[in-house]
Design goal:
61% of the residues lie in helices and 1% in strands. The chain has helices at 2-17, 99-105, 116-124, 130-143, 160-192, 194-200, 205-208, 213-238, 244-260, 270-293, 299-318, 324-330, 335-365, 369-390, 398-422, and strands at residues 66-67, 70-71.
Length: 429
C-alpha cells in the first residue's frame, strides 16, 4: 500500500509540474519569499534588520560584467561565492515518502541530495521530457513510414528487422528530444533563473550551492553538443541529403537560449514566451520525429504543428495565473498581468479550442470524416472542463484543469498525426 500511495503522489506531482507544455521554469511564484541568509559578504543578506530588508536587491544581467554567454555571479550588488549564491531557505519535502523520486524527477517536494549525478539529473527535470517524447511519437506517426516490429493490424507490416531498426531510430530521437535537448533547455533555464531562485526557491541546486557554477556550465555544453551530435547522426542514419534533424535541433536550441537568456529573454513577454514554449514542446519534436522517418515535403506538415503550438500557447498561460502577483512585482509582462485574469483566461480557452477546431476543419477538407469525428469527441471534454474549471476560477483550478483537459488534447495531436500518416495525398494530386 505504501508503494501504491507513493506512486499516486509522484503521478500527482507529474501532472502538476509536467502538465504538458508547462514552462521550463517560472520566474516568480505568486508569493515572493524573502529568505533569510547569513550576514556574510557572500550571502544575499536579506535577514530582517539588514540593509536589504523589504526589497529585492537583484542586479539585472545587463548591469553585470559577463563572459558571454554565461554572465558572472555578481547579481545582487554583493560579492557572492563563485560556487553558490548561498541563499538559505526551507524546502518542504513531501511527507508521503516520495521525496526521493521527486528529487530525481525535478519536481517540488524533493529531498536534498549530495550525489552529484542525482543533482545533475534534477537540473534536467526529467518530468518535462514526457511531452517532447510524445511529440516525436506524433511526428513518426505523421510520416506514415514508421514500421512496427510486428503489426497486428496490418499483415504487410511485419518485417521484424525493419521494425527493430525503426524502433531503435525512434528511441534515439526520443533521447535527443528528452534527456539531451530538453535537459539542456532546463539546465540553462535554471542557470539564468538562479538569482530569482535564490529568492523563491533557494534550495534549488544552483542557488543552494549543491552544484558548482563550473559543473553547471559543463553540463550545459555537454548536453547541447551531445544533442547536436546525436541529431547529425540521425540525419546520417536516415540518409538525408540536407541535415534536417540537425537544423531543427540548432533552431530549437537557439530558441531555448533566447527564451531564458538576456537580452531577449522571451519568457519576460507573455506572447513571445508562451508561443516559444508551445512551439518547442509540440512543433519541434513533431518535425524531428517526422524528419527521421519521412519527409517534411508538404505545407500541411508545417502548418498543423504550428496551429497546435498556438494551442500550446494557451496551455502555457494556465501556468502563469498563480504567478501573477510575483510577475507583476518583478515587472514581467505575462498575459495574466497584461490582460488581467479575466482577459487571460478567455485568451487561453479560445487559443486552445479554436486552433483544434481549425485542425478538424482542415481534416474535413481532406475527407477524413472519421478522424474529424474522433477529434471533435476529444475537443468537447476540453470545452466542458474550460467551462467548469478554467473560466470560473483559473487560479484555484489550474492543476485540476490541466490534469483533466490535457489528456484529451495530447491524444488529439496523436490522432491528427495518425490521420496525416495514413492519408493518401497522391490521390488528390
Amino acid at each position: 500500500m505504501k508503494f501504491f500511495s507513493n506512486t499516486i503522489a509522484v503521478l500527482a506531482a507529474t501532472s502538476r509540474c509536467a502538465s504538458a507544455f508547462a514552462p521550463s521554469g517560472n520566474l516568480a511564484s505568486s508569493t515572493i519569499l524573502r529568505s533569510g541568509t547569513s550576514s556574510s559578504s557572500s550571502s544575499l543578506r536579506m535577514l530582517d534588520g539588514s540593509p536589504y530588508k523589504g526589497k529585492t536587491t537583484i542586479k539585472s544581467f545587463e548591469e553585470t560584467s559577463s563572459f558571454f554567454p554565461f554572465p558572472s555571479n555578481d547579481l545582487y550588488g554583493i560579492s557572492s561565492s563563485p560556487s553558490a549564491l548561498n541563499a538559505k531557505g526551507s524546502n518542504k519535502e513531501a511527507a508521503d515518502g516520495s521525496a526521493g523520486v521527486r528529487q530525481l524527477l525535478g519536481v517540488k517536494g524533493a529531498s536534498e541530495s549530495t550525489d552529484i549525478w542525482k543533482i545533475r539529473l534534477q537540473l534536467t527535470k526529467p518530468v518535462t521530457w514526457i511531452p517532447l517524447v510524445w511529440g516525436v511519437m506524433c511526428g513518426a506517426a505523421a510520416s506514415g513510414n514508421y514500421h512496427w516490429i510486428w503489426n497486428p493490424f496490418d499483415p504487410n507490416d511485419r518485417d521484424v528487422m525493419l521494425g527493430l531498426t525503426d524502433t531503435a531510430k525512434g528511441i534515439v530521437a526520443m533521447i535527443l528530444a528528452g534527456p539531451f535537448l530538453t535537459g539542456y533547455t532546463q539546465t540553462i533555464n535554471d542557470w539564468y533563473d538562479r538569482e530569482i531562485d535564490a529568492i523563491n526557491e533557494p534550495y534549488r541546486p544552483i542557488p543552494s550551492g549543491a552544484i558548482s557554477e563550473g559543473e553547471v556550465i559543463a553540463q550545459i555544453w555537454i548536453l547541447l553538443l551531445g544533442g547536436l551530435g546525436i541529431a547529425y547522426g540521425l540525419d546520417v542514419w536516415a540518409g538525408h541529403d540536407f541535415p534536417m534533424v540537425l537544423a531543427l535541433s540548432v533552431f530549437g536550441s537557439f530558441i531555448s537560449y533566447i527564451y531564458s537568456a538576456p537580452p531577449l529573454k522571451l519568457k519576460q513577454n507573455g506572447w513571445a514566451g508562451n508561443y516559444a514554449l508551445g512551439a518547442s514542446y509540440i512543433s519541434l519534436p513533431w518535425w524531428c520525429g517526422q524528419a527521421v522517418f519521412g519527409e517534411l515535403d508538404r505545407p500541411v506538415f508545417w502548418i498543423l504543428p504550428i496551429l497546435y503550438s498556438i494551442a500550446g500557447l494557451g496551455i502555457a498561460i494556465v501556468n502563469d495565473f498563480k504567478s501573477i502577483e510575483g510577475d507583476r512585482e518583478l515587472g514581467l509582462n505575462s498575459l495574466p498581468v497584461a490582460f488581467g485574469v479575466d482577459g487571460a483566461k478567455w485568451i487561453c480557452a479560445a487559443s486552445v479550442t479554436l486552433t483544434q477546431l481549425g485542425v478538424a476543419g482542415y481534416l474535413a477538407t481532406l475527407g477524413e470524416t472519421t478522424s474529424v469525428a474522433f477529434l471533435l469527441a476529444l475537443i468537447l471534454p476540453q470545452i466542458y472542463f474550460q467551462a467548469t474549471l478554467l473560466l470560473p476560477d483559473p487560479i484555484e483550478n489550474d492543476v485540476k484543469y490541466q490534469a483533466s483537459a490535457q489528456p484529451f488534447f495530447v491524444f488529439g495531436i496523436l490522432a491528427t498525426a495518425l490521420c496525416l500518416g495514413h492519408h493518401d495525398f497522391s490521390a488528390a494530386a
